[in-house]
Amino acid sequence: MKLPVNLIEHELKVFEEKFKDAAKSHVSMLDRIMRYVVKRKGKQLRPMFVFLSARLCGTVNESTYRAASLVELLHTATLVHDDVVDDAQERRGFFSVYALWKNKASVLVGDYLLAKGLLLSLDNNDFQILKFLSDAVRQMSEGELLQMEKSRSLNLDESVYFEIIKNKTASLLASACAAGAWSVAGDEDQAQRMRAFGEKVGMAFQIKDDLFDYASDDVGKPTGNDIKEKKLTLPLIYTLSHVDKETRRKLIYIIKNENTRKEKVNYIIDVVEKSGGIDYTINKMNEYKSQALQVLHTFPQSEIRTGFEDLVNFVTDRKY
């Protein structure tokens, strides 16, 4: 499944330059770090959601480009801060900012990106777009803290898990879609429909990420990283509530005390598969995907809508 880049190729090319300008600094060290960050950006999924949402609802304009830059600035800021929190030495196969410039610089770079994003919107009176994205940042922080709180007790039910991923992941994608729609139409109904669409896609996106931890034909080679980090994701939450008490106690003991031993992690993965945790999680992911497409289909059929469908399919079918 390919990304529908061809539909917004021009917009993404223009965006590249505008984002570089938005991230520039007059401090040489900061500018050097920002050039490093810009060169190693990922697939730019979130700006793609901004531009496709805008095209679905109208014609891309300068406000749309600012919305896409704001989304990417805020997203990058959260990644830089996350690497500090997680003590992560790598990001997308390269050294992280944290690995190269350490704690203090990383925190300040994240703060700088947040400030640049805020000013980009405020200086251009993009107040509603800023409101969408500021709300997402609040939710992301709450989601991270809720996950930290719950991971200590290893007592997480499905409703809390879904609240965490809605806040941590889905909120930014929801805001990106709402911002894209608002930038071209200024229409509350369209913005809220796109926000709901983005949230459903974001939920499916995170569930897919959580599946990569486990062995399955659908998701490829298992990593076991979440288990090593004592993170309870949906496959494991389902399993813990469906196995017998003795197996549950054993699983929790391994997660707490033996989570770095490969054979023990493989044991957990095996139990999760046999208990139906993988199938259950895939079904939940597909439910969110279906709900997202239902919202999308409230908009008229068009080339852009078809491209959006391809993007949704990419989110759930990707191998990485």
* Helix-strand pattern: HHHHEEHHHHHHHHHH
Largest sheet at a glance? 2 strands, antiparallel
Specify Rg, calculated over alpha carbons. Answer: 20 Å
CATH architecture: Orthogonal Bundle
Q: Mind telling me the CATH class?
A: Mainly Alpha
Question: Please, could you describe this protein's structure?
Answer:
With 320 residues, the chain is mainly alpha-helical. It has one domain (5-211, 276-317): Farnesyl Diphosphate Synthase (Orthogonal Bundle), CATH 1.10.600. It contains 14 helices and 2 strands. The chain has a two-stranded antiparallel ribbon. β1 (90-91) and β2 form a beta hairpin. α3 packs antiparallel against α4 and α3 crosses α7 (158-185). The protein is globular and about 60 Å long. The two termini are 12 Å apart.
Key words describing this protein structure:
single chain; 320 residues; mainly alpha; Farnesyl Diphosphate Synthase; two-stranded antiparallel sheet; 14 helices; 76% helix; globular
Short description:
It is built from 14 helices and two strands; from the N terminus they run H-H-H-H-E-E-H-H-H-H-H-H-H-H-H-H. The chain is an all-alpha fold and 320 residues long. Strand 1 and strand 2 form a beta hairpin.
Helix-strand blueprint:
Blueprint: H1 9-23, H2 28-39, H3 45-57, H4 62-86, E1 90-91, E2 94-95, H5 97-122, H6 127-153, H7 158-185, H8 188-211, H9 225-228, H10 234-240, H11 245-257, H12 262-274, H13 277-296, H14 303-317
Helix pairs in contact: 1-4, 3-4, 3-7, 3-14, 4-5, 4-6, 4-7, 6-7, 7-8, 8-13, 8-14, 10-12, 10-13, 13-14
